[in-house]
């Protein structure tokens, strides 16, 4: 019996509202569907949260909002902690 591997995608975000839709839609529209996104918003000051709200309904997209700006390294580590991949 063969199982389909699951892919975890970690996306740090800081003030990149301009690119969020395109980024997330790119993953959603892939032919491979066994994935999860862990998006960590690093206390963005732009419209990122407004854009991300429409993706909160997706079961395989997990969004975390930080309470202050920590930087991309910290965000990636949060994503790794939350990820269920081995």
3D architecture notes:
With 86 residues, the chain is of the alpha/beta class. Helix content is 34%, strand content 22%. It is built from three helices and three strands. It has a three-stranded parallel sheet. The radius of gyration is 13 Å and the shape is globular. It starts with 6 loop residues before the first strand and ends with a helix. The mean pLDDT is 95.
Biggest sheet strand line-up? 1-2-3
- Element-level helix/strand string: EHEHEH
What is the strand tally? 3
> Could you report the average pLDDT, rounded to the nearest whole number?
95
Largest sheet: 3 strands, parallel
Question: Which percent range describes the beta-strand content?
Answer: 15-25%
Structural class: alpha/beta
The gyration radius over C-alpha positions equals 13 Å
Question: What are the key terms here?
Answer:
86 residues; alpha/beta; three-stranded parallel beta sheet; 3 helices; 22% strand; globular
SSE layout:
Elements: E1 7-13, H1 17-28, E2 35-41, H2 48-53, E3 61-65, H3 72-82
Parallel strand pairs: 1-2, 2-3
What would a concise description of this structure say?
With 86 residues, this protein is an alpha/beta fold. The protein contains 3 helices and 3 strands, in the order βαβαβα.
């Amino acid at each position: 019996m063969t199982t389909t591997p699951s892919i975890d995608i970690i996306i740090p975000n800081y003030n990149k509202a301009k690119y969020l839709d395109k980024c997330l839609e790119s993953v959603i529209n892939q032919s491979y569907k066994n994935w999860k996104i862990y998006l960590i918003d690093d206390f963005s000051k732009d419209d990122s949260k407004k854009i991300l709200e429409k993706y909160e309904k997706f079961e395989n997209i997990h969004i975390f909002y930080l309470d202050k700006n920590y930087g991309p390294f910290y965000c990636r580590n949060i994503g790794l902690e939350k990820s269920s991949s081995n």
